[in-house]
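Can anyone check this?
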Amino acid sequence: MFKFNTMEHMPKYLQLGFGALFDTISEMGCITSNAPEEDITPILQSGHEKYIPTLEDYLDNAWRSVSGVVILTHGYLLINEEINKDVIDTLEKYHDLMKWSSMVFRLYNDLATYSNEMQRGKNVNVISCYMHESGACEEVARVYLKTLIDQAWRKLIKVHLACSRELANPFIDMAINLARISCCTYQYVDGHGAPDARAKDRVLSVIIEPIAIGEY
């Protein structure tokens, strides 16, 4: 029951992974437990509540946990008319492109959502990890996060240029555009989770309101 109640509130792309992890842990508990009173499954299922990782460990996982890789992989498969082993294997060539595009996505997200996430009880974010590790205040941590964003952009542009010399592929521009839309979405506030008037106006101007074309 816990498994299904938890998965109910997860996005679709996380449900498969969580379900597999939950089943694996349950199976490990059954194998290693010799008697009901020796069931270790609850210990395996418990997490490290309030644990704050090092900044390096957080960043190493953060770009994977954001949905950028899923979005880019799905887009890559869509632009290929035939999906086969060669197409999938080619994705390995774009590892760094997806990594730095997703890293930009994650860092912009953390910068904009930190305050609201802390109010909701979430304690792991680039800002909180840096503050915990360095003893810096929030203001200093935010400045440092912006330097990380600049570094990620430089690495993304470098990889983008290298890939562009190899072949013309819409997937390459897709990675840059994901980073761009991340900047736009989280430029002022959390334009996805808690959009303000500016974020709503941008959506309306792109999707709803017609673009005025002057007469020449």
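Reply from J.R.: I decoded it. The chain has a mean pLDDT of 78.
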